[in-house]
Amino acid sequence: MQNGHIESFNGKLRDECLNTHWFTSLRQARNIIESWRTDYNEARPHSALRYATPNEFASRSSAPFAVEILSNTTANPGQGNPDGLASLDLDPAPPSCGGRLT
What we know:
This protein is an all-alpha fold. It has four helices and no strands.
């Protein structure tokens, strides 16, 4: 085990989200995973944080950078692809030719 916190998070993500859904598109997977992530960070209390949510813990933490990191969920101008893969045509609709690729 490299990092107990990461291993724990990965196990929860897999057990509670990835293993319980059958994703039919990249867009659907992103939406479901984002909903799970929001719940995990904003609604669910964590015992390691004295039963506060990560956002609550960060807002009352003595480390002000933690609040900035947790609230920075959007890309800055020129950073990454803020419009997602759909803007690059990498999330196409299923083929309409009966499942055959032409």
